[in-house]
Specification:
It is built from ten helices and 13 strands. By secondary structure, the chain is an alpha+beta fold.
Length: 381
């Protein structure tokens, strides 16, 4: 297999699209905390001086959406008017309706909340069973936030992006070919200082031994990134779906996750497909596993389930498909119950990816990362 380069990107929690995702999932969590059976489809748009929250919500509880929005913005770090976007000064508008009864009549008996296709993926490139490029890109985005909040690089501001190109040899990751970081900053610091600091305190701690003398570094390639956040770019819920999943290493069905309660299979079935694929790889049945699902609105059983291991399977793909059917139940109500998805756990998913994160086992865990079907899959062989 020839060498090749593969690139993935991530963004910080202060990126406009991720602000919108976090607002949407904050509203979802607040409702699930009070009303676990609430139906939520919550979208947000953020721009200069304005947050608009819209969607369809059916619930028995009251959610103070403006208060939730301002609290989320403060946590992210938009608490200074000089950034051009301030939690206490921006306007917050809401436009909320109830879920359509035409949708509810199909969902209430246990059917899927919409039609669509979803993918799950796992590979053995990292301990998290995720592709290396997206895990490194997320690591850089997280590290930017850490050095900003700790005061180590106190001139940084919340908006930022990362991108990592990994060189593969014989299908395995070998080295970081290029590391790219763009970070918002204050006007008091020059480009040379930012580049030196970011390489030393962000890129090197994250990429470590994968860097070498030939690695290319790009830090703020335009030379300046003072105007950022919503004043620099309008943000929308669901516009970073590749960042949210596998960094382009696997396909995406097209539906976003944030702001959707678990009856929406865009979210819950994607989580369950990841759960199944991860257990298949952890069980040693394949080095890579990709699962595609398809649903019809109001119908519980998936219309189709496809498994692909890209020639890395230790047994035939048909046998792996048989084992998945035996050990995993893809009906929406089972997914919700098995993964305990009616908990207020979603705000933490809304930045730095939904996969390769904290496994379950606790009240706040992401149960789709559990490896509790590994032994059963092995024994079934």
């Amino acid at each position: 297999m020839a060498n090749f380069l593969f690139t993935s990107e991530s963004v910080t929690d202060g990126h406009p699209d991720k602000i919108a995702d976090q607002i949407s999932d904050t509203v979802l969590d607040d409702i699930l905390r009070q009303d676990p059976m609430g139906r939520v489809a919550c979208e947000a748009i953020v721009t200069t001086g304005l947050v608009l929250v819209a969607g369809e919500i059916s619930t028995k509880c009251y959610s103070d959406i403006p208060k939730l929005v301002r609290g989320t913005l403060r946590e992210i770090g938009y608490n200074d008017a000089t950034y051009g976007f301030d939690a206490d000064a921006c306007a917050v508008l809401t436009a909320i309706d109830e879920q359509s009864p035409d949708i509810a009549m199909g969902v209430n008996p246990g059917g899927a909340g919409d039609q669509g296709l979803m993918f799950g993926y796992a590979c053995n490139e990292t301990p998290q069973l995720m592709p290396l490029p997206i895990m490194l890109a997320h690591g850089l985005a997280k590290k930017l936030g850490e050095v900003r909040r700790s005061g180590l690089l106190d001139y940084l501001r919340p908006d930022g992006k990362s991108q990592v190109t990994v060189e593969y040899e014989n299908g395995k990751p070998k080295r970081v070919h290029t590391a790219l970081v763009s970070t918002q900053h204050g006007p008091q610091v020059d480009h040379d200082r930012i580049k030196k600091d970011v390489i030393e305190h962000v890129i090197k701690p994250v990429c470590g031994d994968l860097l070498d003398d030939e690695t290319v570094f790009h830090v703020n390639p335009t030379g300046k990134f003072i105007i950022g956040g919503p004043p620099g770019d309008c943000g929308l819920t669901g516009r970073k779906i590749i960042v949210d999943t596998y960094g382009g290493m696997a396909p995406h069905g097209g539906g976003c996750f944030s702001g959707k309660d678990p009856t929406k299979v865009d979210r819950s079935a994607s989580y369950y497909a990841r759960y199944a694929a991860k257990n298949v790889v952890a069980a040693g049945l394949a080095d890579k596993c990709q699962i595609q699902l398809a649903y019809a609105i109001g119908v519980a059983d998936p219309l189709a389930l496809h498994v692909q291991t890209f020639g890395t399977g230790k047994v035939d793909d048909e046998k792996i498909l048989e084992l998945i059917h035996e050990h995993f139940d893809f009906r929406p109500l089972n997914i919700i119950e098995e993964l305990q998805l009616r908990r207020p756990i979603y705000k933490r998913t809304a930045a730095f990816g939904h996969f390769g994160r904290d496994a379950g086992g606790g009240e706040d865990g992401f149960n789709w990362e559990l490896l509790n079907k590994v032994e059963a899959l092995k024994n079934s062989l």
